[in-house]
Structure formats: C-alpha cells, structure tokens
Design a protein that fits this description.
Blueprint lengths: L4 H18 L27 H30 L3 H7 L10 H15 L4 H4 L8 H11 L4 H16 L7 E6 L6 H12 L9 E5 H4 L6 H18 L4 E5 L6 H6 L1 H4 L14 E6 L3 H13 L9 H14 L9 H4 L5 E4 L5 H14 L6 H9 L3 E2 L6 E2 L6 H4 L6
Parallel strand pairs: 1-4, 1-5, 2-3, 3-4
Antiparallel strand pairs: 6-7
Family: Belongs to the ClpA/ClpB family. Torsin subfamily.
Protein name: Torsin-1A C-terminal domain-containing protein
InterPro entries: ClpA/B (IPR001270), P-loop_NTPase (IPR027417), TOR1A_C (IPR049337), Torsin (IPR010448)
C-alpha cells in the first residue's frame, strides 16, 4: 500500500464508523445505544442521577471496546492481520457482538481499498500472482532459455488457475551455473508475492549454508519440517526454494516429501497450494551435450524439444550413484512435476546480459563495450569455444571495469 493511501483509508474509516454510530441515535433527545435499550429523555438543565452517570460511563467504555473491534475487523479483512485477535475480541461480554451496521460499512471500506490492490483477487494482500508481468520479464530478461520460459509460465499459471490442485507444484531446475536458475526463481518470487524474496510467504534454503553438516541431519530435518509447516499455516500460497539441491542429504528430501505428495483430505493443514523450486547443477553436462550436438548438426537451439531433454535428464539422474537428490523419494515416487532444463549460454547471450547489467545501473554502453565484456568470459569446449563456462554469473561485476 502506498504511503498516501493510509491517511485516506483511516479518514474514510472514521467517517464510516461515525455514520455507523449515528444509526444508534434517536431524535428529540432520546438516545438508543447500539448495544442497549432506549434511554429516557433528559430535560434541559436537569442534573443526572448517579445511576444515569454510571450508565453513561459504562456506555463510553463500551464505545472504546467497540472501536477496537472495528479496527481489528478492518485489519483482518483488508491486510489479513490480527484475524485471531478479531475473533478473540468479537464478544467481550455475553450477548455483545460487533454491530451489523458497522460490519456493513467496513465491508464497503475493505472493498474500496481492494480496488487499489490485489487482495480482492487473491484473498491475501501479500500474494499478487502477476503472471502477465512474470511472462513479460522472462521474455525480456531471460536470454537463451526458450524451454525454461515456456515450462515455468505454463506450469505456474496452470497451477494458480486450478482451484483444487491435488498436490503442491514441484519444479526442478537443471543446468550449469550462471544459466538463469536463480534468476528465474527470484523472478517467480517477485511476481507472485508483493515483497518478493523478503515476503513471509517465501522461504529460501541454500544447502551448504542452512544444512552444512551431515552429522546434524536429524536436527535439520526437524527444523526444516517445522519451518515449512509454520509457513504453510501462515500463508495459503507459500513458495519454497532449495538452492544447490544436489547437495541436500537424501534424508532431508525424504523428510519434506509429505509436503509435496498428493493431498490428503484428512490433514488439518492443506499443503497443496504450495510451490517448491529445486535448483541444481545436476544434469548440466547432459543438457550441454544435446545443445552441442544440435549446433554441430547445424540446427538452431530453439529446435531442442522439452521431450528430448526431459527424458535425457531423468536418465542421468537415475544413474547418479552418490547423489542424494537422485536417490530421494522425489524421483522414485514421481513427485517432481516438471524438470526444467537451462541451456548453456553462447557469446551473443552474454552480450545481452551485459546490456541488461549496464541498463540496470543506468550506465551508457556501446557495442564495443558489450563485446569486451563477453570476451572476458571463458568459453568451452576448447575447440569450438561455444558456451560460456560461467554463463552470465559474473557479468554484473565485469562492467565495473568500464566505470569512470
């Protein structure tokens, strides 16, 4: 919510609450409180009795409690915050509830606010699900990855449009370092969630950082399961990203298998709205071999099909003798919905990455500068020098060479 909207929202809330309160006022000096019976008229200049004074004091205290109720109700409806508190204070005394008149006005207010945001469509202002923006950015900023673009957009869009998915969406990204796996994961987070990777609905796990020692794997398992459960309870559409997935201990992967399995109606918590992204360098050599074969045959890389690469990827994963990712139940029980291949990047792709890096920092560039950045990279294999060994990973740092 923009900084200019909050004062307007609070001002409108006050007006609506005053209107709601005015519904409780009768005419000609007779007062009908929202929660009580009609009080008798008070003659001008007539002193109040002790009983009447106590009654008014009691009603003023009730007004304060009622104002708190209205605010809790508004927070719950608009920002999805304080819903538990709203339930707790909804009946501070027997037979005492939030007046329907006030609820009607707050419904109008929340509807008005949602017209400026995404919370009406998703039911949670933290979740925006901007598929159009995701597709546009992938097409404009992800270079040389026609298969990844197509699979990610179709898989995510189809999953979000399904009101009752049978299981969580699980995507496994494969390819050399620097080909765009992390870039796409960040882009998915930034277009599905208002706060991107900083959203409380998104959890990023890096294998060697979060789970460095195999001797503590049992402790890691308990922590990981708790963190996933808490995130799912907090957000109806959580995103979990596992970087360097091939370095995860297989028992960690098996521990989170229930969160990705087909939905069990008996479960108290629904995990089927979750999205899991696994990022791995595993399979990169196989993907590169296919790309090199197409180049040697004089065929465009855009002719490489998903069917061909997915089949080759699965075969390589099954042959991986010591890989925890390959030997986990994720593969054995077909819990991965899509294997997403990231092709190796060529010279002209690196130039596009360099252009994007200059533009991102607001710096001017020339074709000569882009060529110079690309020539700084190491290309393989030795004979053809076709693919960048680091992809575009170090390109943003390379342009520092051109700063004045």
């Amino acid at each position: 919510m923009g900084p200019g909207r909050l004062p307007a929202l609070l001002g409108l809330a006050c007006c609506l609450l005053l209107l709601g309160g005015s519904r409780g006022l009768g005419s000609r000096g007779t007062t009908r409180w929202l929660w009580g019976e009609e009080q008798g008229p008070v003659a001008e200049g007539e002193p109040w009795s002790g009983a009447r004074y106590k009654a008014v004091k009691k009603h003023l205290g009730a007004v304060g409690a009622l104002s708190k109720q209205y605010w809790q109700y508004l927070k719950c409806k608009v920002w999805q915050e304080g819903c538990e508190e709203e339930e707790e204070v909804s009946s501070p005394s027997p037979g005492w509830g939030l007046p329907l008149v006030g609820r009607d006005y707050l419904e109008i207010l929340s509807t008005w606010y949602c017209s400026f945001s995404e919370c009406c469509r998703t039911g949670d202002c933290r979740v925006v699900n901007n598929i159009t923006g995701l597709a546009a950015d992938l097409n404009g900023q992800l270079h040389g990855q026609h298969l990844a673009k197509e699979v990610v957009i179709q898989a995510v869009q189809g999953f979000l449009q399904n009101p009752e998915p049978e299981k969580a969406l699980v995507l496994s990204f494969h390819g050399w370092s620097g080909t765009g796996k992390n870039f796409v994961a960040r882009m998915v987070a930034s277009h599905l969630y208002r706060d991107g990777l900083k959203s409380e609905c998104v959890r990023l796990f890096i294998s060697l950082f979060h789970f460095p020692h195999h001797v503590y794997v049992d402790s890691y398992k308990a922590q990981l399961k708790n963190q996933i459960s808490e995130t799912v309870q907090r957000c109806k559409q959580p995103l979990f990203i596992f970087d360097e997935a091939e370095k995860l201990h297989f028992s960690l992967l098996d521990a989170i298998k229930p969160f990705m399995a087909h939905y069990d109606n008996k479960s108290k918590v629904a995990y089927r709205r979750s999205i899991f992204l696994f990022l791995s360098n595993l399979g990169g050599n196989t993907i590169n071999e296919v790309a090199l074969d197409f180049w040697r045959a004089g065929r465009a890389r855009e002719e490489i099909s998903m069917e061909l690469l997915e089949q080759r990827l699965q075969l390589e994963l099954e042959k991986a003798a010591e890989d925890g990712y390959a030997h986990s139940h994720l593969l054995k029980e077909n819990l991965i919905d899509f294997f997403v291949p990231f092709l190796p990047l060529e010279y002209h792709h690196v130039k596009l990455c360099a252009r994007d890096a200059f533009l991102a920092r607001g710096l001017p560039y020339t074709e000569a500068a882009l060529d110079e950045v690309a020539r700084m990279m190491v290309f393989v294999p030795k004979e053809e020098k076709l693919f960048s060994a680091q992809g575009c990973k170090s390109v943003p740092q390379r342009i520092n060479y051109f700063l004045p």
